[in-house]
Each structure stands twice: as C-alpha cells, then as structure tokens.
Amino acid sequence: MARQLVFHNSVALVGKVLRMYSSTMVDVDFVEELRLRTWARQNFVSAEDRDMEWHPVVLEEMRNIDEESQDD
C-alpha cells in the first residue's frame, strides 16, 4: 500500500541530491520510502546544511537522526 505525501514539489534525482519541483501529490510506496530513508542516513548532514527542497521523507529521516543523537 502506498503512503501519500502532500508536498509543494515533485521529486527529481539531480546527481545524488534529491530535489523537488512543481506542486503535486506523490504516492510513495514502502520500497521507495525505504530507499529515501536509506539515502538520508547514508548522506546525513547537519540541519544547517540541509537543502529544504529535499524530499520530505529525506528531511523527516534526518530529523529522526537528530533526535536519536540527542537521546544518547
């Protein structure tokens, strides 16, 4: 079952950076969500270095990593 995400931009892969373009609703299936979360963990950057145009799942996972590091 796909997870619906509403965000201001659709996703495009530019090099290795996930960026979003134009306004749309996107269905992200389980496999795609895992791929995005894995990408976020492998390419983690501090909050001030994040591009707010990255996919919302990527940004959410990076915030999860921030919270995990605060819990330690």
> Main β-sheet, in a few words?
2 strands, antiparallel
What is the CA-based Rg, rounded? Answer: 12 Å
Terminal residue distance = 34 Å
- Which stretches are low in confidence, meaning pLDDT under 50 for 5 or more residues running? 1-16, 21-25
In the residues, how many domains can be counted?
A: 1
Question: Which secondary structure elements does this structure contain, and how are they paired or packed?
Answer:
Elements: E1 3-7, E2 10-14, E3 17-21, E4 24-28, H1 30-42, H2 56-71
Antiparallel strand pairs: 1-4, 2-3
Model description:
- With 72 residues, this protein is an alpha+beta fold.
- It has one domain (3-71).
- Helices cover 40% and strands 28% of the residues.
- It contains two helices and four strands, in the order ββββαα.
- The protein has helices at 30-42, 56-71; strands at residues 3-7, 10-14, 17-21, 24-28.
- The strands form two sheets. Strands 1-4 form a two-stranded antiparallel sheet. The chain has a two-stranded antiparallel sheet with strand order 2-3.
- Helix 1 crosses helix 2.
- The longest helix is centred in the C-terminal third of the chain and has 16 residues, at 56-71.
- The radius of gyration is 12 Å and the shape is globular.
- The N and C termini lie far apart (34 Å).
- Mean pLDDT is 77; it is low at 1-16 and 21-25.
